[in-house]
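dude i think i finally got it to work??
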Amino acid sequence: MGFDTGTTTFMILSTSLVMLMTPGLAFFYGGLAGKRNILGIMMQTFVSLGITTILWVTIGYSLCFSGGEGGVFGNLDWMFLRNIPFDNAYSGADGMYPEYIFIAYQMMFAIITPALITGAFVNRVSFKAYLIFLVVWQLLVYYPFVHMVWGNGLLAEWGVRDFAGGIVVHATAGFAALASVFYVGKRQDTQSPPNSIPLVAIGTGLLWFGWYGFNAGSELKVDSITTIAFLNTDVAASFAAITWLIVEWVREGKPKFVGLLTGAVAGLATITPAAGYVPLWAAMVIGVAAGILCYIAVQFKNKWGWDDALDVWGVHGMGGLFGTIMLGVFASSAINGQSGLLEGDASFFMKEAVAVLGASVYAFGFTYVMLMLINFVTKVKVGKEDESKGLDMSIHGEMAYDEGAL
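look at this
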């Protein structure tokens, strides 16, 4: 069958970019972690590349995209990708490229979403418990929302829109992270400074670069929506980075590099649901709002003593929530056929708000209960001695750096 070479190449590139975000996340979190927990947090991120791939090709893709119109789950007709010939055209893009590329593209989203959560409980959760968490959370949180929003399920039928994952990825992961923080409690050393800010910068650069595939690729073909999603992504990230930098500079008296980098990620997370639905000026507003609101969320978390070590809730959870609500406000029919509150569609705004709040509450509640149940199988939280020693040596028997050479 003849496929469009340009579109096929674009989707392969977008898939590769999203894959690169997972190592980028590992570097970002690895740099922020204390020096005795670098490998532990990076391992939790990288292992998702393997575990999630196995899960996705066996049952994940089928549960998300096979049948189940208007429901919560798909069916198992495409288990092990059976009944999908390797040269089968993906119907959602007018048959321009093989479905296998779409399968791989969506798989990269599935890989990074649970990995986002790990930054919240760095230095506290056993690897064995995390592996169980990785599988069960995808099955009962991520897959249902992928199907409901992107797989012609319940929320899509209701009229909810989420361009690249404000609800499906960031809100669910961010509020799951908060639940995990409440369950496992505080670290012994809550003042653990980043071990390598340059590593955080490398991670941010890879995330920012990969996010073009994450957002622009979510159009699933090449057209004018693809290009505005691409530009909106960069603009929102840039405006958010500088906004966070300024706010922190004013409050603390010094321009902080980690603040600039964190602001960029907040902007990227916040524009994600809206990237292909809003005009460029709205991306600027969303970027500024992300820099301010996510900064406030992190300060709120600090004030209440929630030990979300790497600010997953404040940046991704609240970024996804704010971005989805702002999609409901700024969506423009001239961009992608969907009007928001500013164009008089209050109904769409309410649908977006209800959907993202519902997803956040569900992800929080389910994650908390799931961790309680996992604890009956294997201890979720590591012992005080292992935590004090650091998970790199106590669990993995490895060190990130030869300390004798430092």
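DSSP finds 15 helices and no strands in the chain.
im so relieved honestly
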